Amino acid sequence: MMVSTKGRYALTVMVDLARNEGDGYVSLSDIAERENLSMKYLESIISILNKGGMLMSLRGKNGGYKLAREPKDYNISEILLLTEGTLAPVNCIMQEGVQCEKAATCSTLPLWAGLDKAIEGYLSAITLEDIITGNRKKMLGDYCESCAPDGKAE
Amino acid sequence: MMVSTKGRYALTVMVDLARNEGDGYVSLSDIAERENLSMKYLESIISILNKGGMLMSLRGKNGGYKLAREPKDYNISEILLLTEGTLAPVNCIMQEGVQCEKAATCSTLPLWAGLDKAIEGYLSAITLEDIITGNRKKMLGDYCESCAPDGKAE
DNA sequence: ATAAATCCTACTCTGTTAGTAGGAATATGT
DNA sequence: ACATATTCCTACTAACAGAGTAGGATTTAT
Q1: Overall average pLDDT of the B59-87 stretch
Q2: What does pTM read for this prediction?
């Protein structure tokens, strides 16, 4: 598994915030209740988003969080990268030039590098706004089987 | 991390077998020595490949393994799927119609489904032969930064 | 002052990963 | 027949990561 609940919930939080933008600062307890997730756990996740500059926060009564930018200005890759640490599909692909010592002769490395690129490419092309507006074409292509398990196209 | 050493070593084994095809059956100890991996661990991995019909095996002295088909007739997706169990990037995407109960209303599901599709698409387009022959264009596209960490294109 | 919120540190429980260990079954060469 | 080289099979273990929980300190609006 590449994306844990941490990254998934982080995205859920971002989507929830985007949907409730107008309301000023949104409290974590509201988000946790709406999304039916543990508030304590979300706390640790939203803290990463906040420190990473994705959010603005206000402490004290009536405090909470809101998006630092507009939904269209977040891509999914950056949200997941921040919370997960890496999106690399294998250990041999690591950040910034750090390489396996066999890299020069490894015949499978180009495969992993290519897979990494494919993942990065997909995720960085999609914005938070695409998710809010349900831009299925962008996310799934023209037709998505996995969305129609009963055999009917949507 | 989506692909563990299990899947990675499985691919390494397949590549090693493809490279040493002419020699009839190849023993596990030869592979382990060449690839510098624990033979005992490889044993458990190659057993999965064998039971999954990817290999032919011969017991006893001079025994070993060889590919059941030609390298061009294996795609990477099937090798990894067999050994890893799943390639799904998240828990909400599972096999054959099994779905999260919130699936119908989940706004992030299309993203995960699309990512899964992108991964599957990439991996199933590449064959074992592509790896043997070092088909970088197919694996990496026209230019690969991660292959030239010193800043020079190859 | 009180209540409602973020912020911070530390802990725990569980499952997965990455192996290791030991031996049984099978085939070959001498 | 026998020693040897191999696959095959079951079980075990140590370390790490994932998924939270717990408790309280700090800040701000009313």
Answers
A1: 97
A2: 0.91
